[in-house]
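Board notes (copied after class):
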Amino acid sequence: MKKEKSSITKFREKYFDNYSKRNMTIYLILRGLVILTLIRQIFMGNWNNVFLCGLTLILFVIPAVVEKKMNLALPDALQVLILLFIFSAEILGEINEFYIVIPHWDTILHTINGFLCAAVGFSTIDILNQKEFFHVTMAPIFVALVAFCFSMTIGVLWEFFEFGTDRILKYDMQKDAVVDIISTVKLDPEGKNRTVIINNIKNTIIQCEDENGKIKEIIVEGGYLDLGINDTMQDLIVNFIGAIVFSILGLLYIKNRDKYKFAENFIPKMKKTNKKELQKQ
């Protein structure tokens, strides 16, 4: 008697059939590491990290589901890059504190994010350009421009999300920085719109009231505590760089698909299917 397949096996065969053996191995290794991290965080009682592990497992599946549902073909390199990006952001960055331990970790990820989002925006327009029902054919420069704008829009929306999370849930997603110089009109003695520049700040003393009503002091050594603006602008700048790089690459690819064929490693495409296959889906 033939043994019935489990629901997990059926799900994997349905949505991960486009993954090569190498990519499937990478996916299973990363998934295993996330599950081990999840178990460890449960024993440590870090429920926020448990949630992040669960979210990571869900995010791992989304590209494969989107690929299947929208009849797309994601290149092998793009599949791996997305998986590594998710793992690097959530497991390494948040749980293992790479954002703090590894210099410029956040900068690297935001640059990659700008690159990936530009690829998604580019492929969307490129696919529509090749469709008969899409009556407006865009020039290559406008396809690149849309890809760039799409990437920047995603980057801005993400910063909105970080800002909202910090304000509402009191997190610190927009990482603070210690600076030794500030310029502000708030400290003008006459209250006018004149910039006051303070250089060589050594320490900042913060006085606050604890739960018992007592005043306590917190000293920020080395300068003044900047509340996330440097992090936000740096994220948007590197997102801009990633978006520009791919938009230029995409522009060159459209003009000469044979010469810049390596760009196809990052561009999702529509699958070529017949009517019977479409009816099954």
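Comment from the instructor: Residues 274-281 have pLDDT under 50 and may be disordered. The longest strand covers residues 203-209.
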